[in-house]
Amino acid sequence: MKAGGRSPAREGVSEVAANGAREGHAAAWGTTTVVGAAVPRVDGWERVTGTAVYPLDLQLPGMLYAAVLRCPHAHARVQRIDTSRAEGMPGVRAVLTGASPGADVPWFPQRGKGPLSKLFDPHCRYAGEEVAAVAATTVFQAREALAAIAVEYEVLPFVAEMEQALLPGAPSIHEGGNRQNETLRYQRGDVAKGFSEADAVVELSFQTACEIHTPMEVHGSVARWEGDTLTVWDTTQGVFAVRDALASALGLPLANVRVICPYMGGGFGSKLGLNKHTVIAALLARATARPVKLFLSREETFLCVGNRPPTRLTIKAGAKKDGTLVALEMKALGTGGAYPYLPTSGYLVADLYTCPNVAVEQDNVFINAGPGRPFRAPGYPPCSWALEQTIDALAEKLGMDPVELRLKNVPVVSQQRGGVPYTSTGLADCLRRGAEAFSWQAARGRARGKGHLRRGVGVAAGMWGYDGEPRATAFVSLFADGSAILNTGASDIGTGTKTVLAQVVAEELGIAPESVRIEHADTGTTQYAPASGGSQTVVANAPAVRAAAQEVRRELLEMAAAELGRPQTELRLAGGAVVTPEGTVHPFGSLKALVARQPLVGVGRRHPHPEGKAALPFVAQFAEVEVNTRTGEVRVLRMLGAQDSGRVMNQLTFENQVFGGIVMGVGFALTEARVVDRQTGTVVNANWHDYKIPTMKDCPPELTCLPVDPQDRECNTVGAKGLGEPATIPTAAAIANAVYHAVGIRVTTTPASPVQMAALLERHRQEG
Amino acid sequence: MMPNFEYVRPTTVAEVLTRLAAGGARLHAGGSDLLGCLREGILVPSSVVSLSGVAELRGIGELAGGELRIGATTTLTEIASHPLVRQRYPGLAQAALLVASPQLRNQGTLGGNLCQKPRCWYYRGSFQCARKGGDTCYAYAGENQYHCLFGGETCYYVHPSDLAPALVALEATAHILGRGGRRVVPLEQFFLLPGQDFQHETVLEHDEILAEVVLPAPRPGAAGVYRKVRERGCWDFALVGVAVWLARSAGVVEQVRIVLTGVAATPWRARAAERLLLGRKLDAALAARAGVAASEGAHPLAHNAYKVPMLRGLVEEALRSLA
């Protein structure tokens, strides 16, 4: 892999001291020295050597192991549970059912109505729903005991596919039927009028498959009670979100629930909220007065902890001869499985391009399948798959270059938010500079090959419509020896959050990032941070961390100025020392006041979002593919991600995010799909072999990350916008457009695996 | 959950055979298929007999007549990298190199690869399917995109081995040891279709062991190739795979064997395609016709018709690579 578009870390000294605070919060950085550099992970060593203790690794004295009995039927009602035999089995310490004390916990609360379900709901709505649980001395004893629990089920007819959910006579999954909500609508302008004025109109229908997160570290928790205080080690992206929901489920004060996650082995959205197994572990720990560890099996991660829901989308787009978009319409059918979840987002349709007339309609239904959950850019990749292929088809109909058509319609305001301007939009730059770096024109014009190996290139644009939660607190403590502690509730979910936040502290205090020790992701001892999801982690936390570090910096400079008899504005911080304009170096330890008062402690809070503006990231990605027309094999030869995520906080973590996002997009485009057996409504590929996550061999051999930094000084005080999600949004559509360019086949259904491609190519040959 | 079993590690074939004869035993070579089968409850042995201590089952060596002997516990990595295999039987080396992933090739063995249990997600999953004593084949009316085109009969799994078609194309023989001694079976006859035997995938009796595979001495001027299509670049079984071995004289095909994998419960000879090639000069047009001929007799299920054009294209491509 090569990294393109690298700019060296910005030279020079921070200008912040000179600018000082403005309107209650700091001015944006100008140039930076540590922030932006290619700083390796501060926790890389422990992660790769195995000394990092993930929740899955945790062993506590006297700890029991738990396992969950799950409904094997797609739809059933539990009539009777007999746990007597299981209770007598060797090593078994407790068996939990819905009838156990404290286990009548509501689940899926609804506004103004009773909850949709409960912890152990006798009405099981998908294969994999929780029926009972066991705690035993070993995990093997626990699982063996599950087999000894006798459950009488009334097996009910089920709905396996979303198209069947609303048919007359379809079995009702919830009282009131299978419609999740009234049709969701967004509308501006008049699409009928828009289409009537269009010179070219295209309409295409698409399907996207259900994807499973199935992260490396399976989902699970360890629960331990001390009196009426509960500590939970949970593999989660958001300790505070889990704490809040867990306290509510168990009726405990927030102060009595401590949730900790020092390291997390992948989540991708599936570990954002409270899971039933966490509550079950807590209840079993209380019942047995022992710590209880409950981790799911690999197979269980495919059933009950979320997915990217399947969708059916139709998009219609109309434009004038010159490429001006005049109307966009999307109709979506989707299912979040057996419980409410929005499968797709209309955001891209409404806001990616300037268009006066837009209509979005979404129908979402219940089926007997595992519930959906946020999955890296929830709702966007399916919408992008459809929208960006439709735009590609429109460009062809207009005889325009696909990059040119997109450039023609780049927005400067958020139309969906009533026309508010963006703090910055790098979309045009992403398209232009990305095309240039990709040699788009040359590649587009190159022969596609006459033999059975055909090459093509494609582009897709995208954006991410969430600004992040403007709420986070951080503490920074500085010692006279130049070391510091950063205290933040943020979770580092593998993206390098700790490293980036250490760089922020280092930047402000003139110390090395490795001098910053980090306490994080512990609701008992660290400060509030929103869950690490929604591409908000750096955006929400870095400004709070910077504010805390700046408070320390101000105090330190005051001390130094007094002690050295120099005005503060003359002094700078570097190498753990105060440096005068003449270059005299005064190590922090030489400042008497600091030694006497250490540590200096700064408290930083996230400032509000800029008023009347939208601060959002943009992206354009380019793909080159080779299609084997004999066998249907599609190889992605190279990809380039041109990313406007504002300031590059760390070149290495930035590239990691972009490459990771692209590879995940390759999986969405080419390999991944949950397969449900239509006869039984159960998942047949609930394992890592049959569910095909891309391997290293499926990664494009040439991957380029091109940061496009619009030098946004308004979005927040660090100048960074979200990155994790935009990096994966347009990938699949860019690949599909490249496939179309290569062979003239519009692949409307994911994944474009050889299974599908061989059939499409055969039909294409027969139809000539 | 994995059931408890006795684990033994004998050092001679005789001891292995005694263990097998006692019943309830399963062999452990690389274990990559065994582990999954134990975990899924496909196999519930009372004893697991390790072959790792039986030195005579392992290794590659040339025999007096120029044949090549490959012991059953030889790993796939050893096969793929052995100089004699690479020189004389390149199609076999290619096949071995395309199995699974590097880790699995380091662990997996020739014998294990040939004797692997059926690859069907119903059989492997928690479905009481016909093959496991139930009364229905879920694949027949269900999700059968990975299932067979040829030879299906009440059970529609595929044998997805990459080595098997390459070895059948080379006319390898299976050397089987039992308490009665050694018997030698052409590898092509080693595998059984569900219609031949509904319970067993191979001709091995419960008290027999596949000891080695022997390849005939290479014929000068012969050429071989193996190619597979899979859904991802590594760690994936063939949707369709093809091994071709052919010998020409003055450009005319004198002998040819085209063996498909991923399309039947056994390695599948594409005999119509072979007949078409015999006595002709192999060129692009003939390769394409042979591809079509290779699909003769295919009976696609509801979701695997794509395998027909895929195998045609693959056979064509493999033949063209030898033209």
How does this model look, in words?
The complex is a heterodimer of chains A (768) and B (323). Chain A has 768 residues and is of the alpha+beta class. Chain A has three domains: 2-33 and 468-605, Aldehyde oxidase/xanthine dehydrogenase, molybdopterin binding domain (Aldehyde Oxidoreductase, domain 4, 2-Layer Sandwich), CATH 3.30.365; 55-70 and 76-156 and 215-301, Aldehyde Oxidoreductase, domain 4, CATH 3.30.365; 311-467 and 613-766, Aldehyde Oxidoreductase, domain 4 (2-Layer Sandwich). Chain A is built from 18 helices and 32 strands. A seven-stranded mixed beta sheet of chain A has the order 5-9-3-16-13-14-15, with helices on both faces. Chain A has a five-stranded mixed beta sheet with strand order 11-19-18-17-12, with helices on both faces. Chain A is globular. By secondary structure, chain B is an alpha+beta fold. Among the domains of chain B are: 56-115 and 162-215, Uridine Diphospho-n-acetylenolpyruvylglucosamine Reductase, domain 3, CATH 3.30.465; 222-322, 2-Layer Sandwich (Enolase-like, domain 1), CATH 3.30.390.50. Chain B has a five-stranded antiparallel beta sheet, with helices on one face. In chain B, strands 9-10-11-12 form a four-stranded antiparallel beta sheet, with helices on both faces. The radius of gyration of chain B is 19 Å and the shape is globular. The interface between A and B is large, with 41 and 33 residues.
